[in-house]
Amino acid sequence: MTGGDKDKWTFKVHSGTKDNVWYDVVMRFKNLEAVLKKHIRNRKLWTKDGRKIDLKKLAQNVLWEVDIEMRCSDPSFVYWGYAYTLSRPKYDAIYGEKENRPPRIRNPRQYGGVCKHIHTVYNVLPFYTTTMAKWLKQFHLRTINKLSAEVTREVQGMHKAANALGKRLDLGQVNR
């Protein structure tokens, strides 16, 4: 990976057929905040003492579930129709400008969804869990802390309610 910013990651991928030719594969995480909100609620992803979210565990779950928009700088990405396929409403997974020209000559049946460069990045993406954890910490820690605080308040409220109910049970004020 050559760079990451708040919304996207950029990978340099070798051509595979030409020496010294590299293409950029850009991936943007679409529904990151919703996925964070969902997984921060999962107490299995918190540290053993339950005081904070384990970013590496969170990152692993986020990588598996987040929706991704992508684009490859290789001209064949448009030529073979992958840009068109990813632009279709069914997928809505193109990063940047949508492609509205179907590949009627080169790929009329629209085989394949992504080019070999994007496919290569997808194959190695699970190995970027630590990188994702660092990226989340660098760019999204404020959101993570806010969501974690909400979960902590909910859990504390549940503990208070459970303790109150337990006391009422001990005093015989609640029918069993």
**Structural class of the secondary structure composition?**
alpha+beta
Q: How much of the sequence is in beta strands?
A: 5-15%
Distance between the termini: 59 Å
Question: What radius of gyration results from the CA coordinates?
Answer: 23 Å
Multimer state: single chain
Overall pLDDT metric: 88
**Strand order across the largest sheet:** 1-2-3-4
Helix content: 40-55%
Shape: elongated
Number of helices: 6
Q: What summary fits the major beta sheet?
A: 4 strands, antiparallel
Low-confidence stretches: none
**Strand runs, count:** 4
- Element-level helix/strand string: EEEHHEHHHH
Short description:
It is built from 6 helices and 4 strands; from the N terminus they run βββααβαααα.
Task: Please give the structural blueprint.
Blueprint lengths: L2 E2 L3 E7 L7 E8 L2 H9 L14 H11 L2 E5 L3 H4 L2 H6 L28 H9 L4 H42 L6
Antiparallel strand pairs: 1-2, 2-3, 3-4
Helix pairs in contact: 1-2, 1-6, 2-6
Describe the structure.
This protein has a domain at 3-74 and 115-139. The model has no long low-confidence stretch (mean pLDDT 88). The longest helix is centred in the last third of the chain and has 42 residues, at 129-170. The protein is built from 6 helices and 4 strands; from the N terminus they run E-E-E-H-H-E-H-H-H-H. It is α+β, with helices and mostly antiparallel strands and 176 residues long. A 4-stranded antiparallel β-sheet has the order 1-2-3-4.
